Amino acid sequence: MPIEQSPTPTNGRKEESILVLDPATGKQLADVPVTDPAEVHAAVKAARAAQPAWRALGFRGRRAVFATSRRWLLDNRDRVIDTVVSETGKAREEAVIEFVYMVTAMSYWARTAPAHLRTRRVRSLSPFVLGRTMYTRREPVGVVGVIGPWNNPLINSFGDAIPALAAGNAVILKPSEETPLTGLLMREMIRDCGYPPGVFQVIPGAGATGRALADEADFVMFTGSTATGRKVAARAAERLVPSSLELGGKDALLVLADAPLDRAVNVAVHGAFFNAGQTCTSIERVYVEEPLYEEFVARVRELTEQLTVGRPGGLGTADIGAITYPAQLDVIDDHVKDAVAQGARVLTGGQPLDGPGRFYPPTVLVDVDHSMRCMREETFGPTLPIMKVRDAEEAVRLINDSDYGLQANIVARDTRRARAIAARLKAGAVTVNDTQANYLALGLPMGGWGQSGLGVRHGAEGIRKYTKAQSVMVNKHPMRRDVHMMPFRASGYRFVLRLVDVLNGRFRSR
How many whole angstroms separate alpha carbon 143 and alpha carbon 154? Predict the structure, then answer.
């Protein structure tokens, strides 16, 4: 994901406030005060004070508050969707997906947190701990700092706060300076739904605000660029606090020769152009086995040319919305120009549209190779470079020829073969005959390999990361003295050595 913590003004930013603009129209939406480092310190202090009471509510108490939040979301559905659309410029359907995810997540984490975080009995085969009761238990880390991105201001910002809250933590959200309004709306929801004051706070700001939060939180959840993620991880390591990072991606699609063509085309087009390609799990490069290549390319071009680009209105008014982050438009255009300069052909699209607003049409590129930026660097825009390969072996080699490893996708009729190929791909997630649907499976972990991040969202690991593990051993019926205790006795340790020999199948004569 590209850098959203820019040190220079991009969205009408001033030192004291953030001027929020609609990317689709250029219209001013709001002027939001910036949170300075001193205010961040006060917010963390308030969160620490509020967290014990929130933890003491227990899973049942927090579940009741989450149920109220879910009702609030449903009652304010259009307002939530309108806010996401206005500050991102994305198609309304894409904001609907964010809303659906949020309602589902509120229910999922409230329902599953007790099972994921329950006390677990531990058993040991060691004879040296016979008679002991052993278990592990989990405690919330305390104050979780969430630093969110601009592309999905609901899913990847407040969405990361939900499991942290469900685990009993207080949360401070630093939304992207490009899209702070959705986070502020979630703060309003929290106030309306009976959360203790200080348990969830929103601190709008740019890089300085994010750095101040990373300097004080007990856990940092960051979504953004690999470059900024390294800085977040380094600061967390210096402080010896945990962090979780969802970073950049260059996700690949492999279309095998036996692939159902209609499905392959729809997976490619949707995977590449959903949210105008501004999704960490967007398909950014496609490898097609030679027998299917020509027909696949023709069908992709045909479907892409049917997509509409423009200012989002009601449902069905636009397929491709605006480019949210101003500098991203230049990155997209540079990648396309670089590819063309090195011999790639543009089949459709290929240059920014005239204003108002920031729009780039869905662009299909062919005759591409790995010397081109569009095949190696994260584009984060509506481009679909397609490369012909001799066979799956060549495709696997090319897919793995990347610093990133967030997600990969395969389309094939023979799903047994696809599974075998999936096991060879260097990616934290793989879908077969799907794209991005795995993100809605909240029980399935989602995280990147390599330069794509550390840690996961979703699944048991997605909530346990917000907790500290404590192991407990209880000796209910202790002897007066164990054989290994001081003062050391030779007879006792000879017995220990004989026991080790017996347990390992070695029998020594005297």
Answer: 20
Which three-class secondary structure state does DSSP give residue 331?
helix
Phi, psi of 403 (to 5 degrees): -75, -20
Confidence of residue 446 (pLDDT cuts 50, 70, 90): very high
How many helices and strands in the chain, by DSSP H and E?
Answer: 16, 20
Tell me the two tokens of residue 395. 């495709």
H or E segment and range at residue 453: strand 453-454
Rounded to whole angstroms, the Cα distance separating 143 from 257 reads: 50
DSSP H helical segments within 132-254, as ranges? 159-166, 181-192, 207-214, 226-239
Of 468, 455, 507, residue with least CA distance to 143? 468
**Residue 154 carries which DSSP code?**
I
Confidence (pLDDT) at 9: 39
Strand pairing of 345-348 and 363-366?
A: antiparallel
pLDDT, one tens digit per residue, over 159-194 is: 999 999 999 999 999 999 999 999 999 999 999 999
Taking the C-alpha atoms of residue 220 and residue 145, their distance in angstroms, rounded to an integer, is 5
Residue 463's contacts (CB-CB under 8 Å, 6 or more residues apart) are 109, 112, 113, 116, 117, 163, 164, 166, 167
3-state DSSP helix/strand/coil % of the chain, to nearest 5: 45, 20, 40
> Residue 337 half-sphere exposure, CB side, CA atoms within 13 Å?
8
* 3-state SS assignment for residue 491: helix
Averaged pLDDT score across all residues of the chain: 95
Catalytic residues: 246, 280
pTM of the full structure: 0.94
Distance CA 363, CA 365 (A): 7
> What separation, in Å, do the N-terminal and C-terminal C-alpha atoms of the chain show?
68
Q: What pLDDT, in 10s, does the model give residues 2-34?
A: 544 433 334 544 468 999 999 999 999 999 999
